[in-house]
Sequence to fold (526 residues):
Amino acid sequence: MFDAFQFEFMRNALMAGLLASIACGIVGVYVVVKKIVSMSGSIAHASFGGIGLGYLLKFSPVLGAMVFALLSALTMGLVTRKTKLPEDTATGILWALGMALGVIFIGLSAGYAPDLMSYLFGNILTVPVSDIYLMMALDVVILGIVVAFYKEFLLLSFDEEFSTAVGMPVNGLYLLLLCMVALTVVVLIRVVGMILVIAMLTFPAALARQFTHDMKKMMLLAVVFGMMFTMGGLWLSYALNLASGATIILLSGLVLLLSYILTAIFKKAKPERA
Amino acid sequence: MTDSDVVRLEHVWVSYNGTSALEDINLRVAEHDFLGIIGPNGGGKSTLLKVILGLIQPDKGMVTVLGNPPVKSRCSVGYVPQTSHFSLDFPVSVWDVVLMGRYGRTGLLKRYGRPDKDAAQKALMRVGMLDHAGAQIGDLSGGQQQRAFIARALVGEPRLLLLDEPTASVDSAMQTEFYELLANLKKEMSIIMVSHDIGAVSVFVDKIACLNVQLYYHGSKEITPEILEATYKCPVQLIAHGDIPHRVLREH
Fold:
């Protein structure tokens, strides 16, 4: 394994994994506690439209994905807050529309779409240096927002009605939160692919929740778990010659399941609290 | 209007999708009033509180809180929502929940400072929950959660306290203690408490209003069987238990 890090692509892969873990660990905690998992899935899938547009108009598909993810986050936020359309209906519509647009755009673009599979399913081994810099910049933005708005996001996630009653600009902060999810999608897209982004947003945070009731510790733990999963998954995929994105997800999914099962057994063994 | 009016509603109408939730509500709450509002579920009790909080904009009518529109008075209003609304496995400690009540006095992007932390400590002490400050909110009993949420409402040093079904998750042994706390708080602020528990409310509050879309309120603690019938749309038998003083109902 350590021989492998002589290669630049392996070092890049390691770096990409670490940067992805930071974004998904922190934002994933909000996704899990605020229960916006399927909404985040919708934002991720809608970004496919941007990837397609990138291919069609010959600009960076990652940039296209970022624009589409941000736009769908804002649309989702505004539609669910300002109209009577149920949240899951809006989620489904945006999810499918973005995907359909992507398919049409790619169909219209002349010839072959290189790297398409890596956007869909991720390939941590082929992350270009330019994308590493982008991931780094987005991590800094996400960290900055969370440090600045930690108090507000805690209120927003815990009790929106009370937040409104104490005069917090709830709708604006909600949009900001969804935009952070959109940026995280962009950070994760090269590592696990847009289809599997939702897993990285959920699994490390859900696992962290098993161990702590403190939101800051939960974020820290989720980042650490994310790193363990990306590294472990990378090593497994290298050793067993499997697709890296899917291996990372399967590994984290299995660990999460195991933790749930162990917790259930442990809780049964423990006498009920009086 | 007089300066002593903490809450004043004049001809307030609220409807959801064409159905009236509140019809022509007139209400005045003075300083140090302890008003209980009773009525059936779906009678508009929570809606009325949300109108006073400025969370719901009435279709018609005028609302003032401490002489201003509700939105402007939010800093001076403490709100205790129904605890059943929360996902209680949320990763947050009692201390952090209480600090949330300081948001109105801290503001966007600013950190909680020393005055906020002092206020949180004082509020927790007041409700007897300082020892549980570090506990996760979901690990507390119903009564303890209740007191934590009251501390969150008190920490902003409100002049008006709104409580929505506060006794729903509190067992009856805890209720007396809870009402004693409110009786103490009444010296410093006005309190409006919404409940469907007629018996308990009538013992401890100073004034009672009955709400079922329309409000029946005469500025006193007396409820007549006629008012109760109008509120609940069916005859209600008032049974006076030993622990309910007879002054609740005047002889008819």
Summary: Chain B touches chain A at residues 53-55, 71, 74-75, 77, 79, 81, 85-87, 90-93, 96-97, 100-101, 103-104, 106, 108-109, 111-112, 136, 138-139, 152, 156 (CB under 8 Å). Residues 172-185 of chain B form the longest helix (14 residues). Chain B has eight helices and nine strands.
